[in-house]
Amino acid sequence: MGLTGLLGFGAKDIVQCLFGLQQLDRGTVTLDGREISIGFPMEAVRHGIAILPEDRRAHGVALGFSVRENVSLASLGRYSRFGFMRRDNERSLVSEFIRELSIKTPGGETLVRNLSGGNQQKAAIAKWLSCQSKVYVLDELTVAVDVAAKVEIYTLLNRLANEGAAILMLSVVGPARAVRFLRPGYSWCIAASSWASSAETRSTATICWLHRRVRSAINEGAVA
């Protein structure tokens, strides 16, 4: 699902609310048919919600940590027993994610700041795969990512969607089965092709908005 709208129309707010970075003014969040509460990020993680923020270097990865530490950072319980880290198990699973996502790195101990933008993004995705997340909230996922890495990331997202994960992409430029456009006070959704470009998204949003304005004017008697 794509989510888009002009700046200030609330798309960023929805993304932040879904991860507990902002609180809902009204409305509810439902997951698997059950209403859930997301008061802060750890609650979102416990519900299986992952976020890949727009500013990857500031909020998506820990630049001073290794690839291994970044991948296991949000799921330390998976790699520990009785409060002690099982390093061999951690290194083994992280190596699997590095191979699965084709993260180009000399090794798991390489600092993330030394990776390219695309490989930093892959490390961020691997962190949430390690958590076995089921909802992925993606904010401008492929900013400053090279073309080859974009293809690999979109291929992975398609696989996750086919396996049952929910994917919400803010400002869609890429694969989306539907796009929801936001306007103050309402939103509308259209089916999308297998690929939605930024130009197509903007033009469709403009056409839909103009159509609604014309209908509203007719209903108010402003247009004969």
Tell me what you see in this structure:
The structure is a single chain. 41% of the residues lie in helices and 17% in strands. The chain has 8 helices and 10 strands. The longest helix has 22 residues. It starts with a strand and ends in a 5-residue tail after the last helix.
Mean pLDDT reading: 82
Number of helices: 8
Instruction: Report the span from N to C terminus.
Output: 37 Å
Structural class: alpha/beta
Largest sheet: 6 strands, mixed
Shape: globular
Sheet-strand content, in percent, reads 15-25%
Task: Return the string of H and E elements.
Answer: EHEEHEHHEEHHEHEEEH
Sequence stretches where pLDDT stays below 50 over 5 or more residues? none
Strand order of the largest sheet: 4-7-8-1-9-10
Percent helix, as a range, is: 40-55%
Q: How many individual β-strands? A: 10
**Rg from C-alpha positions?**
20 Å
